[in-house]
Amino acid sequence: MNKVKLSLFALAAIFAVSCVEDPVMEESMADDVQVSVAKKIINTADYAIAGELVLYVDEETADLWANAESVTRSGNSNLDALAIEFGAESIEPVFNMNINGDKKRDMGMHRWYIVKFDKDADVQVVAEKFASMKEINRVQYSTQLTRPQISAHPVPESLATRAEGDMPFNDPMLELQWHYDNQGSNSIYKTAKKGEDINAFAAWKHTTGNRQVVVAVVDEGVKYNHPDLMDNMWVNEKELNGQEGVDDDGNGVKDDIYGYNCVKANGNITWDQGSLKTDSKGNTYWDGDTGHGTHVAGTVAAVNNNGIGVAGVAGGSGMGDGVRIMSIQIFDGDNSSSLSANAKGIEYAADNGACILQNSWGYPLREGQTMTDADYQSGYSVECTALRYFVSCNGCSAMQGNVAIFAAGNDAKATADYPGAYNEFIAVTAYAPDGLPTTYTNYNLGCNVAAPGGDYWVSGQYSFEYAYEGSVLSTIPAETVDPYSGQKYGTDYGYMQGTSMACPHVSGIAALVVSYAVENGITLTNTQLYDILTSSVRNIDDVLTGTKPYGDKASTYFMGLDSFKGKMGTGKIDALMAIQSVRGALCVPAVVGQEVEIDVSALLGDGNIKVTGYSDFEIPAETRDRLAIKGDTYFSGKVYLTCQNAGVGTITVKYIAGGNAVGGGNTTGGKLMEKEVVLVVRDVNDNAGWL
After folding, report:
1. Which residue, among 2, 13, 3, has the nearest Cα to 290 in the 3D structure?
2. Residue 584 class from Cβ within 10 Å (0-12 exposed, 13-18 middle, 19+ buried)?
3. What is each CA distance from 431 to 262, 500, 544, in whole angstroms?
4. Tens of pLDDT, residues 127-168
5. Pairing outcome for strands 586-591 and 671-682
6. How far apart (Å, rounded) are the C-alpha atoms in residues 36 and 30?
7. I need a labelling partner for 358 at 20 to 30 A (CA). Which of 9, 384, 435, 475 fits?
8. Using omega within 30 degrees of 0 as the cis cutoff, is the peptide bond preceding 549 cis?
9. pTM metric for this prediction
């Protein structure tokens, strides 16, 4: 069985928020239009799972299959004959129409089906037969995901022996988490620079998290009984207090206490599954769980101020107030999820109250391969449908819509990996304790914002030295086996590096922002939250000159930093700036009859962020009329206008988060963001009350 390579963006290395209607689907709905078989089959058979296809069918067929007495008795003689011919075992809907059924039906989700048939049948022949039928609008080979080996560097909790100043919480390893508050300690990383962090300590003075916020971690299973995570796990109380083997809450999944296992299609979350195998050279290795999902979860919401281990970005204050983690498991030992099973996991997260989707995984491009937004949208349609549904839901009372955040990838390529590269989502690049891009991070096309990902190797006096302290410290499962040594980690804490580790910093900050909104009676749209995340940044381009040495004990190389300039996203995300962005509107003063200049770059982050490429603005008719605006124009990143009336109004400025072009269609590019500005116009400039 061939598999699609899927990278957990760590040591080794979706969805569309608004998927446009696919022309193949729409054309095939018309009775008088025959779409070619080739156009209906949307991905390659090279990656096909035997005995399974994902189908998008017309309305009539969807209703017939939903009420069919059996696989071969749908009421459509042609489809029934085909089911008999290839030994169909089941035809089941991809999505659970018993929850939010009307909404899902409006989005066409009831038309996605999985058909399972004889595994000895030629899956390509079966796909072509289904595609030749007018009732079938789209055929997708069901593909299984795989991953490279990754590993944590386990460390005992007793390692924390330094005292680098006052800590806001009593977690003993917090002082080693440079990515929250970097003091430039050479004992952690020889080239570390003070301030190269997410500024978490300052943000925690305003909020540390809120229980109403649920972050779904799409990854390996999260160790839900981890001593530093268990109090911040999302818990399905009806299942916890119900009967084993029974769907106590009626959501279609049995025993889903802490989340959903996409691989097994049940609630059994695991994190220590796998087996020792032997490669072609006779070497044994561990093929299975690595602790990746637990590590990611710890960065988002390890319990703060509980006197043990590490802290999480939104882990609370020790008073039971941290955000909650829902585990959406896409890897289980040496088994992995399929694309349609992934879609069901995303749907589950939406149906059960998650508002932030944390995704440290993606599809690395093969050598010479290219992919555009249109390619991803077409080839992964069932996932696109699931994400479109997720972001349309309101997982939290303070949110209108949900958000999805992805890692950019670890191939050192000038493009983010998909699905993160898709223009409707955020892709996160990684920097090291020195504030410079890591040696592995993807950059440029599709990348939107930078966060700490860490680096193992640091320049020593004569050569490079291995310094795991320069990576990201978080939670791991003690009982999970290291894939390289074959030994159990033996500790609940460890270091990993990668854009996988950068991504949960951004998800954690998103959780802090929503928590602050909850606590202050503020409602945010998902567009506003995306803007806060990409505009609450510090400049990275100013230090991207010259070269950065890298290598290992044997070799030294030099990475040209100029090639990263303007390509790491808008800048380095700052948690305090993000909180402050929620606290008040951006106000621009103006005087009646005098031209006002609005510099878009000055509105982002520390005011030193360079906006490149396209940007624009919109003035609502109400504002235009009230303030009698004239002469409004845009030039070189600045908006110019003159107001003839005094008063207050809003305008929207637009900018690209990462890159010179907006992604979409046949382009891989940045995310077009919107920021609302309050224009305060007075008759005279008395300088007595400007905001």
Report:
1. 13
2. exposed
3. 32, 12, 12
4. 999 999 999 999 999 887 767 668 899 998 776 654 445 899
5. parallel
6. 13
7. 435
8. no
9. 0.88
